Amino acid sequence: MLLKRIQKTKIKSGDILLFHTKGFSSISWAIRSLTLRYWNHVGIIVNESDYVYVVEALFRGVAKTPLKKYLNNSKYVIQSIRVKRNAYRTKQEYLRAIKTAIRRAKVSVGYKYDYPSIAYLGIKYLARGFLKKILPQTWNPLNSRLAFFCSELVCYCYSKTSSRYKNIFAGEKHPHQKCDTITPKDIAKSRHVYKILWEEI
Q1: Residue 3 near residue 78, CB atoms below 8 Å
Q2: For the chain: N or C, fewer Cβ within 10 A?
């Protein structure tokens, strides 16, 4: 049923998949609790021949997972979103951005998971008072260029592809926010994306 719906909506390479993990998962619960949002994971869709994959940053590293793994898994609620055309000045720029995002996703497979950066995000969200004031809010001092956490990877794929916005996933409060502080929440609520599919599977 869901596979037919995905085909009907013509899910494309470059689309973004948001995940809510059902049941209890300590990491998923922590992400949702800290960000105060429903989504705890995100990946980017890549079509290759007749196969559809999700390129995602997992704890073992960046991997290319067949989409059908999630279609047959009752642990998740998923939402597919797509970057808006008006986030770019021209149609040509938009199409180049999609190609760039797909290429970056593919070459990122095999990169390590960015544990230091995700730890910093936890500290940032838990910080209160003076500590919160002195911690950088728009960049991550523990970031590694050779590793990604899930939302950092998706953000990187689209990073600087628009001549209108440096980071299409940055909020209005922090328009210069870098990818190493972007969360699934930021991607889900970005004004530069729209929903393609929302379905419990």
Answers
A1: no
A2: N
Q: What is the token pair recorded at 150?
A: 């899930």
Which pLDDT score is estimated for 34? 52
Q: Which domain holds residue 47?
A: 2-200
The two three-digit tokens of residue 32, written as one number: 């949702």
> Tokens 């209005």 — which residue?
172
- With H, G, I as helix, E, B as strand and everything else as coil, classify residue 190: coil
* Mean per-residue pLDDT, 158-163: 96
Residue 160 and residue 166 in contact, taking contact as beta carbons nearer than 8 Å: yes
- Residue matched to tokens 């440096």: 166
Dihedral angle of Cα 36, 174, 159, 162, to the nearest 10 degrees: 120
Read off the DSSP letter of residue 111. P
Interacting residues of 63 by C-beta distance below 8 A, sequence separation 6+: 55, 56, 109
